[in-house]
């Protein structure tokens, strides 16, 4: 916990404090030399800990130096008594290179160097996630975000939710009030994915509910199949992230890490594409129950399905813009899936910066044909130019960060399916006289929104849906 940015009032972060007080979590409180002691005292009382870590770094000029790196010490006290002192350091030149490469700006060199000191401290202390409100958090033009998971307080729930799902811990709520503790337990890990995916797809849930009310067992079954594949895709994304967390910023990903990440990503692609295919075929049958599906596009990943079947039935509908904007992500997913059938995806460890630094698992897009990515796709899928760490003199090539791509394809796919579900459920088709009565069964204007229950919002936070796609300060 970066107390300099979080301030002196833990009550401002009630949900984060509840998570940090759970028995599975070890909170580490970080202050800088010279910070207000009252800030640390309030957080120590709130989190019931007597351990404090004081970072000796104040500014670049007053720091020691060993060769090309700045050096400082982190002092650990317990109950006010010094128990440890650790040497930390960072290369201050990387902040200069980051600033030179950035096309966004808005950060001072002091902010970048302070973030580097925090990242160095976190690595030395073995910290899994660093909670801060610093302006550098989440910025792709800050190299130290490649080393340590720096997150905002509102994102802590999503990090912890991922941890619970990957460890099989079913206690989703652990609230301490006075001397008592209130616990809420999920029935199973499979149910956690059920709740999480459902919270993202209210319109698909309404499609299934409408079919059930109409007594259409076949449609209910097919929508259930779509849901099941999406839940399994979400689990595969979790496993991508879990495998990438093995190194936690320490060195290049190992061969086993690359293999584990790549295999989990393959499963995500297979399940997402299967969901697009199933829903596309279902829509064709809903338009014309007598359609044998032998001709024409049959999958939501196909632009031709939009051109030949969706747009003619929903001409000039406002929702068509969202459907068209999201379809390329489904096409990208299907294209990568097709590569798996032909060969294997070219994945490996790549440098996250053209000037070196950390490395991560990425997909080499230069070997994949038919991809058409505009700037929005490049941002959302985490594409940049890089070289493998073992071939620094080779020409750079376009690669996509595996974690960002996995999350981007999943969340864009979910948005696509729910936007399409709303379109077909709320608007009768204009050119399908034999259409199933489910199409247009719940008329609504584009402005009308489905209200979220507190439970739905809880699971949106638990999966990080509302912060999964946030582009800030990126030129990648």
What does this protein structure show overall?
This protein has 476 residues and is of the alpha+beta class. It contains 15 helices and 13 strands. The chain has helices at 3-6, 14-20, 37-47, 93-101, 109-125, 156-167, 189-200, 202-213, 217-244, 255-287, 303-310, 319-342, 375-381, 402-426, 454-463; strands spanning 30-32, 51-55, 64-66, 69-78, 81-90, 130-131, 150-151, 171-177, 180-185, 347-351, 359-364, 383-386, 397-401. The strands form four sheets. Strands 1, 2, 3, 4 and 5 form a five-stranded mixed beta sheet that branches. It has a four-stranded antiparallel beta sheet with strand order 10-11-13-12. Helix 9 runs antiparallel to helix 10 and helix 9 (217-244) runs antiparallel to helix 14. The two termini are 28 Å apart. Residues 470-476 have low confidence and may be disordered.
**DSSP, total strands:** 13
Instruction: Give the low-pLDDT segments.
Output: 470-476
Average the pLDDT over all residues and give the rounded result. Answer: 91
Strand content: 5-15%
Rg: 25 Å
Helical segment count: 15
- Major pleated sheet: 5 strands, mixed
Shape: globular
In percent, how helical is the residue content?
40-55%
Task: Measure the end-to-end span.
Answer: 28 Å
Report the oligomer.
single chain
Summarize the helix and strand pattern as letters. Answer: HHEHEEEEHHEEHEEHHHHHHEEHEEHH
Please state the structural category: alpha+beta
Number of domains: 2
Give the structure's gist in a few sentences:
By secondary structure, the chain is an alpha+beta fold. The protein has 15 helices and 13 strands. The protein is 46% helix and 14% strand.
């Amino acid at each position: 916990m970066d107390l300099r940015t979080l301030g002196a009032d833990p009550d401002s972060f009630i949900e984060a404090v509840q998570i940090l007080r759970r028995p599975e979590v070890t909170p580490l409180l970080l202050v800088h030399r010279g910070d207000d002691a009252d800030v640390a005292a309030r957080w120590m009382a709130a989190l019931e800990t007597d351990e404090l870590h004081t970072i000796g770094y104040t500014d670049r000029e007053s720091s020691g130096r060993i060769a090309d790196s700045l050096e400082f010490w982190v002092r650990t006290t317990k109950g006010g008594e010094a128990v440890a002192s650790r040497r930390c350091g960072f290369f201050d030149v990387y902040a200069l290179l980051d600033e030179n490469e950035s096309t966004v700006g808005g950060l001072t060199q002091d902010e970048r160097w302070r973030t580097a000191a925090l990242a160095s401290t976190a690595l030395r202390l073995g910290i899994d996630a660093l909670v801060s409100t610093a302006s550098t958090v989440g910025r792709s033009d800050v190299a130290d975000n490649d080393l340590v998971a720096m997150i905002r307080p509102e994102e802590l729930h999503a990090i912890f939710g991922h941890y619970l799902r990957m460890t099989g811990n079913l206690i989703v709520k652990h609230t301490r009030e006075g001397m008592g503790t209130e616990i809420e337990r999920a029935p199973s890990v499979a149910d956690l994915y059920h709740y999480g995916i459902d919270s993202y797809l209210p319109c698909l849930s309404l499609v299934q509910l409408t079919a059930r009310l109409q007594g259409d067992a076949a449609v209910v079954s097919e929508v259930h199949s779509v849901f099941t594949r999406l839940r399994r895709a979400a689990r595969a994304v979790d496993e991508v992230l879990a495998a990438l967390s093995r190194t936690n910023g320490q060195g290049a990903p190992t061969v086993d890490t690359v293999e584990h990440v790549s295999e989990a990503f393959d499963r995500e692609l297979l399940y997402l594409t299967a969901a697009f295919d199933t829903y596309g075929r279902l829509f064709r049958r809903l338009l014309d129950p007598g359609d044998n599906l032998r001709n024409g596009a049959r999958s939501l990943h196909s632009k031709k399905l939009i051109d030949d079947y969706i747009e003619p039935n929903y001409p000039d509908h406002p929702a068509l813009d969202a459907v068209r904007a999201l379809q390329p992500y489904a096409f990208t997913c299907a294209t990568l899936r097709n590569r798996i059938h032909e060969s294997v995806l070219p994945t490996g460890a790549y440098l996250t910066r053209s000037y070196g630094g950390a490395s991560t698992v990425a997909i080499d897009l230069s070997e994949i044909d038919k991809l058409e990515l505009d700037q929005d796709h490049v941002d959302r899928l985490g594409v940049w130019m890089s070289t493998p760490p073992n071939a620094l003199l080779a020409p750079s090539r376009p690669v996509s960060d595996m974690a960002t791509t996995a999350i981007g394809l999943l969340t864009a796919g979910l948005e696509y399916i729910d936007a399409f579900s709303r379109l077909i459920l709320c608007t009768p088709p204009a050119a399908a006289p034999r259409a199933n009565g489910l199409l247009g069964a719940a008329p609504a204007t584009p402005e009308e929104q489905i209200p979220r229950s507190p439970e739905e919002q809880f699971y949106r936070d638990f999966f990080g849906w509302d912060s999964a796609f946030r582009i800030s300060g990126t030129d990648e």
